[in-house]
Amino acid sequence: MFWSFACGVRAVPILALCLAAVAPVQAQYMNPYNGLQFRSVYQANIDRILSESIQRKMLESAIRRRLAANDGTTASSAPAPATYRHAVSATDFVPAGKRRVAEQIAASSANAAERKQLIEACRRIQAEIENTPGFRKNNFANGLALLVGVSLQVLTGTEIGEADTEALVRDLNDQLASSEGYRRLSAEQRTAAYDTFVILGGLIAGIAQDAADRNDAQQAKQARELAREVLVSLGVEV
User: Fold this and answer.
1) What global pTM score does this model have?
2) How many CA atoms lie within 13 A of 198 on its CB side?
3) What proportion of the chain, given as a percentage, has pLDDT over 90?
4) Which among 113, 147, 156, 238 could disulfide-bond with 197, CB atoms 3.0 to 4.6 Å apart, if both were Cys?
5) What are 47-89's pLDDT values in tens digits?
6) Is 159:3 a contact under the CB 8 Å cutoff?
7) Interatomic CA distance for residues 226 and 124, integer angstroms
8) Which of these, 10, 17, 5, lies nearest to 212 by C-alpha position?
9) Do residues 227 and 154 make contact, with C-beta atoms less than 8 angstroms apart?
10) What is the residue-wise DSSP string for 179-224?
11) Can you tell me the distance from the alpha carbon of 30 to that of 45, in angstroms, rounded to the nearest whole number?
């Protein structure tokens, strides 16, 4: 499921602008709650949500289980049946507040016309993903799993199969639904985080797939670096 939308995303005609907008730079964004500095606005956004509200170690354990399940060179086989504590609907939410993640990403461009294009591209990417069969729209665990899954696949070069996709969603869903911090998140905070997960996951997938299509080694390297930065921002050193 993580790659099924990549064909549509890579058709966005301004992927080069998108890459420039999300590529890590020298530290310039700060989480005001803990003083930590990050090299991109999305990292600061993710850190602010997770450090304030969600037990990062629990999420890291779920992500590392997926890393262990996908350390070969081919798609992993279906995992043993697992028992989950919460229905996926436990991390559904009703969107609220101003949805300005696209504007935040586009703000890195000094050119007004480019900013407009970037905003439109980010919104199109989110729509492409949310219309993908199997993706649960307005579900925090699905959004986070998409970003994690895309990042793992780009970084390791290993396809994540349907069974592992479902397992990652359910693992993250259980960790989130069991977290008091997650339950304290406002609808506005959940919306902003989800939008960040979905748009960034789509951008990484599109950039990586476009690099593969054009055999562009430099762009592929940039996509891997971006994927690594995402995982590091989630507390996973890879």
Assistant:
1) 0.78
2) 31
3) 16
4) 147
5) 555 554 555 555 666 666 656 655 554 444 454 567 888 999 9
6) yes
7) 20
8) 10
9) yes
10) -HHHHH--HHHHHHHHHHHHHHHHHHHHHHHHHHHHT-HHHHHHHH
11) 9
